[in-house]
Specification:
- The protein has 15 helices and two strands.
- By secondary structure, the protein is mostly helical.
- It starts with a helix and ends with a helix.
- Among the domains are: 68 residues, Helix Hairpins (Orthogonal Bundle); 61 residues, no CATH class.
- InterPro entries: Chaperone_stress_response, DnaJ_domain, DnaJ_domain_CS, J_dom_sf, Matrin/U1-like-C_Znf_C2H2, Znf_C2H2_jaz, Znf_C2H2_sf, Znf_C2H2_type.
- One of its GO terms (molecular function) is nucleic acid binding.
Length: 388
């Protein structure tokens, strides 16, 4: 009779993760082989069982499965009673393989991990092939072989050269993780149809039998899929592959960081060694002529009238300063304001209709506006006469 995992750790079935961890550490200290030299073999076996118990119960998914099938797992192959030989391997038979006590070491020996589970899955595959060949399955018409479990030297996945489907452990797990049995599960029937008194009772019996078969098939499929997950988690080849993938990922992350650091240093070096172009310096010098510098120019200095800005009323020492000033925002603003002011004054000035203000006009007498064109002609006539 197998020992319950909760009893191994000496905790209640409602224990929290923290309580499980504390109990595991306590039991591990008690049964560690280094502390039990007088019973080294017993301590080694017990210590392995304690590790297995904590490994299962600390995983929420595996713990839920264990709690739901605890009694069947504890019975294992020790269960007694009649069973239909056509059923082949049953759920109760599989429960015994949910334990590390089923094998001794991770090797290819007859009691080793790889031999035990390779033999088991080969047997399950043979039963599925027989069910299809006998015509017991209505769903599957042809059978496809599953990839082999392999040995300790079988590669988990493709690394250098692809060897084909089925040559890798990864193919095995991918196929069995989606396992669906082709068996009929007729041994799960509750009623014998030949005993039905009439067709109505027979129809009810068929309905209950069909439901019982579907339930048995679902339980069988779930058991095998969970067993595959249980085995994969403890498969040294899978663990080595996970470590290898993690190492590659860490190396890639480190390489990305190093490349980013190199690029950053290269950019800093280029920025430090950057030599400003001549044309860029000239442009900056032109822009550096500020408005304050224009205002600080000495208006009484000895400047050339050729470098005088009428709009801003300023003198400049050289042609370059004068050109820079003409490009400044302040000068452009002043010129624009003057242009707008002159346009406004021109619109307001109407020389064609200017009324004459006569001091000696009598009250009520209207004064007509003077036509400047006529006045201009009279002045021209007078000037001509005087010249003669």
């Amino acid at each position: 009779m197998r020992v319950c995992y909760y009893e191994l750790l000496n905790v209640a079935r409602t224990a929290s993760p923290e309580e499980l961890k504390k109990a595991y550490r306590k039991q591990a200290l008690i049964w560690h082989p280094d502390k039990n030299a007088h019973r080294i073999q017993q301590a080694t076996d017990q210590f392995a069982l304690i590790q297995e118990a904590y490994e299962v119960l600390s995983d929420p998914q595996e713990r839920a499965w264990y709690d739901g099938h605890r009694d069947a797992i504890l019975r294992g192959d020790d269960s007694v009673g009649q069973k239909d030989s056509s059923a082949g391997t049953t759920v109760d038979d599989l429960m015994g393989y949910f334990s590390i006590s089923q094998y001794r070491g991770y090797n290819d020996d007859p009691k080793g991990f790889f031999h035990i589970y390779r033999t088991l899955f080969q047997k399950l595959e043979d039963e599925e092939e027989e069910a299809v060949a006998s015509g017991a399955s209505d769903e599957v018409q042809s059978f496809t072989r599953y990839p082999s479990f392999g040995s300790s030297s079988t590669p988990f996945a493709d690394d250098d050269g692809y060897l084909g489907y089925g040559a890798y452990v990864k193919d095995f797990y991918n196929a069995w993780m989606t396992f669906s049995s082709a068996k009929s599960f007729q041994w799960a029937d509750k009623w014998r149809l030949s005993e039905a008194p009439n067709r109505f009772v027979k129809r009810a019996m068929e309905k209950e039998n069909k439901k019982a078969r579907e339930t048995a098939k679902k339980e069988y499929n779930d058991t095998i899929r969970n067993l595959v997950a249980f085995v994969r988690k403890r498969d040294p080849r899978y663990k080595a592959y996970q470590d290898q993938q993690k190492a590659k990922k860490d190396a890639q992350v480190a390489e990305n960081k190093a490349r980013a650091q190199r690029e950053r240093l290269e950019l800093q070096a280029k920025a430090a060694a950057y030599k400003e172009q001549e044309w860029a310096r000239v442009g900056e010098e032109a822009d550096s002529v500020s408005e304050d510098e224009d205002e600080d120019e000495d208006e009484n200095g000895d400047y050339d009238d050729a470098f005088y800005c009428v709009a801003c009323n300023k003198y400049f020492k050289s042609q370059r300063q004068f050109e820079n000033h003409e490009q400044s925002k302040k000068h452009i603003k002043i010129v624009q304001d003057l242009r707008e002011q002159m346009l406004a004054d021109e619109e307001n000035l109407d020389l064609q209709a200017i009324p004459l203000q006569m001091d000696d006009t009598e009250e009520g007498e209207s004064i007509e506006p003077v036509n400047l064109t006529d006045v201009g002609e009279e002045i021209a006539i007078i000037q001509t006469e005087e010249a003669e």
